């Protein structure tokens, strides 16, 4: 080998190593940006290269992997990057404590408008609202005078449409062209909630199955309206509130998780003789015991988010930190009451540990149980 060759080989090797290092750094940077955007990583955690920053990044990657059930153990692998690159909703998966309080509208009759929309966009939007109305006490009506929910096509850096929006006129979130973020929405507020739909996407604006290279507007709108009503992301793939877009998005229908989430906020419409939902929130850090069988023992559940009693069925949603499971239990009439009593007792016991108003709570719960024994 001549010296010239040797230098060429070395130069080449250095270039390859540099390229590998660059690509690692690029994907790290991409992951950091993603994890910060969606609430997995604090903004200021990884400014400096330190052991702590590496640890924080690893922890954030592990959280993301746990939320979406991707194997990886905190290591940024191909499957994880691939998931991060899929088209999705721009709203955070993990809310920080400040955002965590439940936000809902104080009324059940809400108005909406789609700013500068065509007839076909309006028709699709109407159907999206109907999907939520069919499964809750909510009623929706289009009204362009001071609507509660304002939807618009936006792109790149953009402004809010409605002057009632408090604070800056500039939306803090970017819509970065095709792919990535498809749309984002704001939780209910006292005045107006906006939904911004990325006009750079190739939208399918019909009530039919969409061609592969398009995004179904009905599906995206139904998801974003969920946020505008106060719902958060759900890691279950069949939920409308799942953040990513899967290949099959039509027909659009609520999953049981969506149904329970909207019931939890607004209840059912008053038309049949249905028992109202019992809702309760318990904050414990206990890891959930999982059991999806029909015969699940409700008393064994350690952390319960919402309980819905509908006809002769008890549905319970549970959220571990990054996980949620649904139990649907169909009981004979007597069995239902028994299960419900046991569950309320169990919840009361849990409250005893975590609340100082135990007695009041317990009384209230026994009162609920008594009410149910009348209605069952
Ligand atoms: C790393 O974190 C620990 C505990 O949070 C802290 O005491 C320490 O100062 C941090 N080190 C650096 C270099 O930030
Ligand atoms: C939502 O409402 C529709 C129409 O009434 C109904 O067919 C569907 O079963 C409901 N969804 C759930 C999850 O109950
Ligand atoms: C729209 O809302 C305005 C103000 O809230 C109200 O006066 C008007 O009657 C509504 N229009 C329709 C068609 O409901
Ligand atoms: C449903 O009915 C109850 C009792 O009849 C009533 O208090 C409540 O206001 C009704 N809710 C709605 C949304 O109409």
If you had to describe this structure to a student in words, what would you say it looks like?
Mean pLDDT is 76; it is low at 272-296, 320-325 and 352-358. Helix 4 crosses helix 5 and helix 7 (333-354) runs antiparallel to helix 8 (358-375). By secondary structure, the chain is α/β, with parallel strands linked by helices. It starts with a helix and ends with a helix. 37% of the residues lie in helices and 14% in strands. The protein has a six-stranded mixed β-sheet with strand order 1-5-6-4-2-3, with helices on one face. It contains eight helices and twelve strands. Among the domains are: 3-85, no CATH class; 109-266, Collagenase (Catalytic Domain) (3-Layer(aba) Sandwich), CATH 3.40.390.10. It has helices spanning 3-37, 51-68, 78-84, 119-133, 217-229, 256-266, 333-354, 358-375; strands at residues 88-89, 109-114, 139-142, 149-154, 181-185, 193-198, 203-204, 215-216, 278-279, 306-310, 313-319, 324-330. A hairpin with a 2-residue loop joins strand 10 and strand 11. One 2-acetamido-2-deoxy-beta-D-glucopyranose (NAG) binds at residues 108, 137, 270. Its cofactor is Ca(2+); Zn(2+). Keywords: Calcium, Hydrolase, Metal-binding, Metalloprotease, Protease, Signal, Zinc. One of its GO terms (molecular function) is metalloendopeptidase activity. Residues 1-19 form the signal peptide. Residues 356-376 are annotated as: Disordered.
């Amino acid at each position: 080998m001549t010296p010239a060759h040797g230098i060429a080989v070395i130069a080449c090797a250095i270039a390859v190593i540099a390229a590998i290092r660059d690509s690692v750094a690029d994907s790290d940077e991409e992951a950091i940006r993603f994890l910060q955007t969606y609430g997995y990583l604090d903004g200021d955690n990884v400014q400096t290269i330190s052991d702590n920053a590496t640890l924080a990044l690893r922890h954030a990657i592990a959280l993301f992997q746990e939320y979406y059930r991707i194997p990886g153990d905190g290591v940024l692998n191909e499957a994880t990057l691939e998931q991060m690159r899929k088209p999705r909703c721009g709203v955070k998966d993990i809310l920080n404590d400040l955002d965590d309080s439940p936000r809902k509208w104080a009324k059940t009759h809400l108005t909406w408008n789609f700013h500068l929309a065509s007839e076909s966009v309006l028709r699709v939007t109407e159907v999206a609202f109907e999907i939520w109305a069919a499964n809750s006490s909510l009623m929706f009506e289009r009204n362009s005078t001071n609507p509660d929910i304002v939807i618009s096509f936006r792109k790149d850096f953009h402004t809010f449409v409605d002057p009632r929006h408090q604070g800056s006129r500039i939306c803090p979130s970017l819509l970065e062209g095709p792919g990535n973020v498809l749309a984002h929405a704001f939780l209910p507020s006292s005045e107006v909630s906006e939904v911004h739909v990325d006009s750079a996407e190739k939208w399918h604006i019909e009530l039919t199955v969409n061609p592969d290279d398009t995004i179904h507007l009905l599906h995206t709108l139904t998801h974003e309206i969920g946020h505008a009503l106060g719902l958060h992301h759900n890691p279950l793939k069949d939920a409308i509130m799942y953040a990513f877009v899967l290949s099959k998005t039509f027909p659009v229908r609520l999953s049981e998780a969506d149904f329970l989430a909207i019931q939890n906020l607004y209840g059912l419409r008053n038309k049949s003789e249905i028992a109202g939902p019992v809702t309760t929130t318990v904050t414990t850090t206990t890891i959930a015991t999982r059991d999806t069988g029909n015969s699940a023992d409700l008393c064994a559940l350690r952390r319960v988010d919402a309980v819905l009693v509908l006809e002769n069925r008890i549905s319970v949603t549970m959220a571990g930190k990054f996980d949620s499971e649904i139990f649907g239990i169909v009981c004979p009439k007597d069995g239902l009451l028994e299960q419900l009593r046991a569950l309320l007792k169990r919840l009361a016991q849990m409250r005893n540990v975590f609340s100082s108003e135990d007695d009041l709570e317990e009384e209230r719960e026994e009162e609920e149980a008594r009410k149910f024994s009348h209605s069952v």
